[in-house]
Amino acid sequence: MAAQNNAPLPAGLDVAGYHIVKTIGCGGFSIVYLAHDAHGNAVALKEYLPSQLTLRSQGGLAPQVDPAHLALFQLGLRCFFNEARALVQIHHPNVVRALDFFRANQTAYLVMAFEAGHTLQHVITVKCAHGARLSEAFIVATFVQISNGVRAMHAHKLLHLDLKPANIHLRHDGTPILLDIGGGALARTGSGLDARPVPIWSPGFAPPELHQGCPGPWSDAYGIGASIYACLLGTAPPAASARALDDRTDAQLNRLAGVYSDALLQLVRWCLMLDPLARPQSLFALQLRLRDVSSATGPHASNVMMVDYPPAPSAA
Questions:
Q1: Which residues, 6+ apart, have CB-to-CB distance to 212 below 8 Å?
Q2: Distance between CA atoms of 161 and 185, rounded to whole angstroms?
Q3: Around Cβ 45, how many Cβ atoms within 10 Å?
């Protein structure tokens, strides 16, 4: 992900009634703060701040936008708000809860529930540092639930498009939730996909069609497969562009024969097909295969049920 070159807002600042405590995350598209609402509840405050279009120096509030980039910045602002309106309608245990959104400081903010715990990437890093592997039961149980959350997003006409272990948060009870859905999400319409400015994809986790402007549910299936690959091998798959020239992912997965089940390895291969039409075409198709792997893995994984999620109601 691209670096964030803008200075964060200072601790102690109040923004539309939210009191900033500290910066807790940043990327090329946004900065996320731990904040307190008017009742003292902890929330995550996400600020729309595309680093390729804006400049904010230390101590500043409003980002400075070059006139040449203003139209693109405003387009991104509209996308951010459209996504926020959809996100606040999603009530799902595996998707971070969006609580509010507003304009301030000549940009936009999304307020989300603050969740204690660690990212899946942190868990992978710690395991690798100790020479250990994640168990198949844990991996399958985690991604059965994550697929439920992604399918809920799809039902609300949203694609995530930045699925990776760093964007999967594990609560203290182990329940996984999707994070960073404001920056990677992409609104879908009946006629196609709304344009997005300055796409920021994560190498290794991004399917090739993202660079060609034709993503769909199959693109999030790739992200799920790449994230499981990272759980198995401790590292992201090679970037799709590199795989197109010399694809070694299958050889890497073959090394895990006997360590993980053939069913799980085949699921990852299916999700990581470079041809979008060769992948799962819907999250439902992926969930069916995950459920089969889950049933074969053991009681810890199979106790996590596939949740059916109804489509979002049509806009009035």
A1: none
A2: 6
A3: 27
- The CA R_g of the chain, rounded to the nearest whole Å, is 19
The token duo for 145 is: 């639930």
What is the DSSP secondary structure assignment for residue 247, as one 8-state letter? Answer: -
46: nearest Cα among 106, 95, 113: 113
- Reduced DSSP (H G I as helix, E B as strand, rest coil) percent helix, strand, coil of the chain, to 5: 40, 20, 40
Distance CA 187, CA 193 (A): 6
- Do 18 and 45 form a contact (C-beta atoms < 8 A)? yes
Place of tokens 């085949």: 266
d(CA 39, CA 34): 14
Q: How large a percentage of the chain has pLDDT more than 70?
A: 87
The per-residue pLDDT for 130 is 93
The pLDDT of residue 71 is above 90: yes
Which amino acid is it at 53?
L
Tokens of 293: 């792997």
pTM for this prediction: 0.86
Amino acid at 68: A
For the chain, how many helices (H) and strands (E)?
10, 14
